[in-house]
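[STRUCTURE TOKENS]
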Amino acid sequence: MKDLNEIRNQFSRLIEASVEQRGFKTVHGRIIAYLLMSPRALTQQEIVERTGYSVSAISRTLDELENLGSVSKFKEPGERSYRYETTTSIVDSLINFIQKWLWTTKNMMNSIDNLAQEVENIDRSTLKNSEIAEINYFNKKMNNIVDSFKKIVPQFEKFIQQLNKID
């Protein structure tokens, strides 16, 4: 029979593996796991003690998680330290992550598309054949990136709609 610490460690490893698959570090998953397991919001020092990570690693990661919208911080009246808690469910965190990725991807897609248009408008009459070949190659690559994004983005938008039905 497993004790509570073994179950906590196993849960933490599951969350860590999940966030690592999404491109995050183990520390992100461990913090989220311990916040999910805690019946109350934790201070940074409590998170350091429970996770075994350094103060600087925890501080930096909490800032990142807060910027992602996965963690919020607040101060209790009369306390000097901030307390941290998860702000959303795992599904909501995934939706939030994908929505931010989509926003960034759409902006990048538009910027690359604009650059491709500018490359298309370059006057080639004074250029060497090798420069024209390089321009054509570069323009083809940019258009391929934009075309790939145009195929991928709707799939992720559909995925978000499906995830929204879960909650």
